[in-house]
Design brief:
binds S-adenosylmethionine, globular, Rossmann fold, seven-stranded mixed β-sheet
Length: about 260
């Protein structure tokens, strides 16, 4: 599992600038009554928090609010790989502005939300059995004022809605962490890549022991890597300083034989 040393109290100058703007205009979406987790106990609610993520400058950028649950291990937490992938989407916004995007294992969905903010048609997906994660995705879409489809999509499972997807960009942040799920993930990625020529899977992951398995499975599924970046190479310093780990970004496509 990915680890993080995020320092949520440390705010950059940019963040503080944004906050003062927001205070003046009172425009920032907040978690409304309807967005509260009504079935949670008060102890559970203590673990629920909201984080702010900033893209670009005040003039040409935006911020995104994410509801997180510190009690959860996986899909209700913004993992560092997600922050890095979201920044990549922002920096490549012209590529995303008319794209059809599917995010796999989206969890709190930061990269997909950035893609939607810059104009992409976005479907956010996560494990079909994790209804609390899918509910949270709908909430974060609402509080950020974006319209995305939310779909239960378990890797390697061929339920009817999967067949309706035809993305030209597939996103996946920190989806390569459990080696037992790698083959199913690549099966789904390959299926989606085959639906649309020139489509690409863009993923960020912690570079650790599963690397050889990733290479082996890419060959098995007829995939090739066209770009491999150190995830910190394009991060603004004020964002990078809150993150740690050896995170890579890979762009993966079908190998044409
Ligand atoms: C480490 S979390 C990453 C979440 C989010 N992408 C991020 O980076 O903040 C892994 C995500 O993959 C999802 N996931 C795990 N196994 C899955 C499977 N077999 N099918 C679909 N989603 C799965 C989890 O529910 C979780 O949201």
């Amino acid at each position: 599992m990915a680890s993080t040393n995020k320092n949520k109290n440390k705010k950059s100058e940019l963040e503080l600038e944004y906050e003062s703007e927001e205070d003046e205009d009172n425009e920032e979406p907040s978690i409304g009554k309807d967005d509260k987790f009504s079935s949670e106990t008060s102890q559970d609610q203590d673990m629920i928090t909201s984080s702010q993520h900033y893209f670009g400058s005040i003039e040409d950028g935006f911020s995104i609010s994410i509801i997180e649950n510190m009690k959860e291990e996986y899909g209700l937490f913004v993992w560092p790989s997600s922050i890095i992938l979201a920044e990549y989407v922002w920096q490549q916004k012209s590529r995303f502005s008319k794209a059809n995007v599917v995010e796999l294992g989206a969890g709190t969905s930061l990269p997909g939300l950035v893609a939607a903010k810059v104009g992409a048609d976005v479907t956010l997906t996560d494990d079909a059995n994790r209804l609390e994660v899918l509910d949270n995705m709908r909430r974060v879409c609402n509080i950020n004022g974006v319209k995305c489809r939310v779909l239960g999509l378990t890797w390697g499972v061929w339920d009817a809605p999967v067949f309706s997807l035809c993305p030209n960009i597939i996103l996946g942040a920190d989806v390569l962490y459990d080696t037992r799920a790698f083959n199913d993930l690549f099966a789904t990625v390959t299926f989606l890549l085959q639906k649309s020529p020139d489509s690409v899977f863009i993923t960020t992951y912690h570079n650790r022991s599963g690397h050889h398995l990733i290479e082996f499975l890419m060959e098995k599924w007829g995939l090739k890597c066209t770009k491999l970046l150190d995830g910190f190479s394009f991060m603004p310093p004020h964002k990078a300083s809150n993150l740690s780990g050896n995170i890579q970004l890979a762009e993966i496509v079908l190998e044409v034989k």
